Amino acid sequence: MKMSSCRHSGFQKLFLILTFFMLLGIPAVAAEPEAESTESKIDISGMIFGHIGDSYEWHFTNIGDTPIAIPLPVILYSKERGEWFTFSSSKVEEEDYQGFYIAEEGDYAGKIVERNASGEEVRPVDISLTKNAVALILNCIILTCIILSCARWYKGKEASTDSPKGFIGLMEMMISMVYNDIVKANIPVHVQRYAPYLLTAFFFIFLNNLIGLIPGSANITGNIAVTCVLAFCTFLMVNLFGNKEYWKEIFWADVPGPLKPIMAVIEFIGLFTKPVALAIRLFANIMAGHAAMLALFGVIFITSSMGALLGGVMTPLSLFFCIFLNLLELLVAFIQAYVFTMLSAVFIGLSQPSHHHAE
Questions:
Q1: Is the pLDDT of residue 19 over 60?
Q2: Which of 92, 135, 214, 341 has the fewest Cβ atoms within 10 angstroms?
Q3: Which residues, in sequence order, are CB contacts of 169 under 8 Å at separation 6+?
Q4: pLDDT value at 161 more than 90
Q5: How many CB atoms lie within 10 A of CB 307?
Q6: Under a CB-based contact definition with an 8 Å cutoff, are residues 238 and 351 in contact?
């Protein structure tokens, strides 16, 4: 009971800290449209997609007409000139720099482009450190530090019977939950082979979901490229380690002879639809939550421009729903990490059909 109380207390502290950051961030997110006159048209869609999209700078907010942003390094290889170029993103935000500029429309809108000999816009090889790339690196470092700090505590307590408390106790509870309720419950054999990947996937998604709720941070798991890579990792774990029975069920299922070719085609397509569903589910749920939150913020500025009475009524109502949605997104952050890990474990377990179960 004492250990359970400590872990519950640690979870409450974490929840209160995250809630504080969510509430603190309301003015920061709302500050961006304040720079516009209430008489001008408010671009809600631009605000939403500008926040959840990627960029060459890390923009936090606006103070008046002054944007608060960190320029990031741009790394390009021009196929037209056969040269590498490295410079700060601030150089191309306002004007052309060494023949490069950010396209405002077309297929390459928002991307750095150059013109070829015919005057057409072409994309150079772009390996720049964008906001999402930098945030991904930072979040991986944070996750590594968290796991290593837990490992260091256990290494120092090998001969001790003390139970972990606080944050370490919370981590032990979550690791045990993922290992026992997801990994062991769905994978019949070779549990130790798959546990590291599934534990890493869960905490990676969960941490990025939480950090993505902090105003000014990057929306990593709301990026389809990131979720596709995660789904591809699950695809490799399922198909590279699938046993003979698994492949037999795909290409030579136990059905009447005339149906075997049909079932083989269906099962083969299913190999690819499963990871696609994983990627789209995570991406869509996280992106939708951010979009809904920003849309509610936008209601404040739209109604304010329509009159003081309507603005005075809708502003507190919108703020209430924003706070409620922020708190709901904390739950969604956990649920989406849990669902992705659970489905990955189920798919891996289906690739190991056996009558024997691991201890």
A1: no
A2: 214
A3: 3, 6, 7, 10, 163
A4: no
A5: 10
A6: yes
Across 2-11, 21-30, 45-54, 240-249, least confident range = 21-30
| CA proximity to 72, closest of 126, 140, 143, 145 | 126
What is the token pair recorded at 41?
């048209």
Provide the pairing of β-strand 121-122 with 66-71. unpaired
Nearest to 305 by CA among 86, 38, 26, 88: 38
**Averaged over 294-319, what is the pLDDT?**
75
Residue 177 has pLDDT above 90, yes or no: yes
Q: What pLDDT is recorded for position 21?
A: 45
Which residues lie below 8 Å from residue 276, measured CB to CB, with a gap of 6+? 231
Give bridge partners of residue 101 from the DSSP assignment.
113
Residue of 313, 310, 301, 315 lying closest to 39 (CA atoms): 301
CA distance 99 to 90: 15
d(CA 211, CA 141): 13
Q: What does the alpha-carbon distance between residue 211 and residue 229 come to, in Å, rounded to a whole number?
A: 19
Q: What is the DSSP letter of 110?
A: T
Of 24-28, 206-210, 266-270, 277-281, minimum mean pLDDT range: 24-28
CA-only gyration radius of the chain, Å: 25
Q: Please, is 184 exposed, middle or buried when counting C-beta atoms within 10 Å of its C-beta (0-12, 13-18, 19+)?
A: middle
Q: How far apart are CA 4 and CA 9, in angstroms?
A: 9
SS3 354: coil
pLDDT at 119: 82
- Asked if 132 contacts 218 with a C-beta cutoff of 8 angstroms, the reply is yes
Interatomic CA distance for residues 8 and 209, integer angstroms: 21
> Is 352 within 8 Å of 244 (Cβ atoms)?
no
Q: How far apart are CA 189 and CA 75, in angstroms?
A: 46
Q: Measured between alpha carbons, how far is 193 from 349 in angstroms, rounded to an integer?
A: 12
Rounded to two decimals, what is the model's pTM?
0.79
Give the span between the Cα atoms of 19 and 13, in whole angstroms: 10
- Cα 309 to Cα 33, 40, 313, 314: the distances in Å are 20, 19, 6, 9
Strand partners, 207: none
Predicted confidence (pLDDT) at residue 181 exceeds the cutoff of 90: yes
